[in-house]
Amino acid sequence: MVMQSVAWAQGIGGGGSSSSTFLSLIPFALIFVIFYFLVIMPQQKRSKQQKALLEALKKGDKVVTASGIWGTVTNLGKETVTLQIADSTKIRMQRDQIARLRGGDDEEKDKDS
Description:
The chain is of the alpha+beta class and 113 residues long.
């Protein structure tokens, strides 16, 4: 009998349950919005920049690969890139493994070493 009265008491306040359900969803929505701005949006931006870099790649570009190899682009394929890493050494690798272009600062540091 006690359980029935508890269940009956919970069922009486039916009008307020929809607003309390809405209020309980607000923290989840805020967490999602914060997660979007801190994680998803920067990741999408980086992905777009990397795609643009790979599409703009051309012969003669000095690049650094994802594994840290420094080289100069000598040939471009649809999915591959040929890099010259020494005077007589060329390697072929996947195009998406190019991490970044080497800038002028990298050249100066390389000469100092």
